[in-house]
Amino acid sequence: MTEATIAHDLPADERSRLQRRWYWYDWANSAYVTTTATVLISPYLTAVAKEAACPGLAEGAQCSTNLSVLGLPISPGSLAPYTITVATILSAITLIFVGAIADRSPRPTRLLGGFAWAGSIAAASMFFVQGTNWQLGVLLIIIANICLGASLVVYDSLLVRIAGPDERDRVSSRGWAFGYLGGGILLALNLVLLSAYDSLGLTRGQAVRVSLLSAGVWWAVFTLIPYLGLRSLHGTRAKPVDVRAGVVGGSLRQLADTFREMRHYPNTLLFLVAYLFFNDGIQTVISSASLYGQEELGFGESQLITTVLLVQFVAFGGALLFGRLAARLGAKRVILGGLVLWTVVVIIAFFMPEQQFGLWLVLGVGIGIVLGGTQALARSLFSQLIPRGREGEFFSLYQAMERGTSWFGALIFGLVYQLAGSYRLSIIALVLFFVVGGVLLARCDIREGIRQAGNPMPSVV
Predict the structure, then answer these.
(1) How confident is the model at residue 282 (pLDDT cuts 50, 70, 90)?
(2) Which residue in 166, 230, 328, 412 has the fewest CB atoms around it within 10 Å?
(3) Average pLDDT over residues 141-164
């Protein structure tokens, strides 16, 4: 593929072939997102931290002793949210450079594979987090999350290379749906393991560690499919490259140009700010749901995994549904409708009584319907607002701005728990993120933004 080649320059059968291979990275990384980041690591790291701070504490009991982290007193129950906070801040700093390098790299799939495999090694190494070794868990979470974000910058930027303007909502939604299916399958296998660990001669902790290992291995193995199948895709540049500057030096110059030029794309910038808010709410729900369900509502680990498994398979259909709705109504309208549903979900979660597992499952169905669809359509809609040849650097801003504020939701969760001892009190604050994000998105003129970026207009906007 030459430097000037873009999706609409390819034959339909070639685009379809590339799209099928592209989907597999959603399948690959969703195992880590689902099994590790969403379900297991926060409760498991909390248990390890409690054992370090309060040795021999009975399960479910409160630990009143703080950990010392860099001289600061940290409640064991706040360690996981704080770790997510640090990981997202570091990601925001790192990712703004990744896209510029990806655009300049002649083989962006090599970057995709490199970041993915580094992250998968960190994810698999969580197997060694046990006893009171919470420090290793914190380090591995940070590494895995940074590498995941970096790989997604490259992966998302390839969407423009494999799908035309009228295909992107469908392709992005199918990718998300495929990811939920893959993540759900591995989670189902891990649910069996965590339900029958006694008969296999394992302890509960060992079963959790094996599950963490499986997510890292899954991520690594299935990354081979997009890595090998998308090798024909090359980096693209809309502007001449100063070869004397090199990859890093040239990338820094390109990054500076991007920030200066953002004023020429006000609707792209407004969309980014809107996404920054509503995605913060989504990510906080995803990362904190298991901790909230276990610590505040009193559900067991198997119940939480069952819930997330339900969400995964519902989200498979939800993502496909949102893709079809976008083809008729436009991605912006469908996303706004999804944000209304997210607000309803958070309000219900706030008022939910303890030990009401049936109602919790109904809430999980609601989350599954809107979860994949809103994120998939946000990705495809943003791709329409990117100037041609600048996909990597703009998607790096997309990912970096997501992480630049998504720590805020996790930080609120941790702070409120430390101050009030209740996760329930913090969850209602997430409504603000959905409302502000929705208002800003409603004010975004998508048609004008596409024109400003110089892109062809899709049939439905």
Answers:
(1) confident
(2) 328
(3) 92
* Tokens linked to 57: 């504490």
Give the domain ranges of the chain: 27-55+70-236+264-453
Which class is domain 27-55+70-236+264-453?
mainly alpha
Name which of 294, 283, 286, 346 is nearest 45 in CA terms.
294
For the chain, what is the mean pLDDT? Answer: 85
pLDDT tens digits, 172-220: 999 999 999 999 999 899 989 988 899 999 999 999 999 999 999 999 9
The predicted pLDDT at position 9 comes to: 64
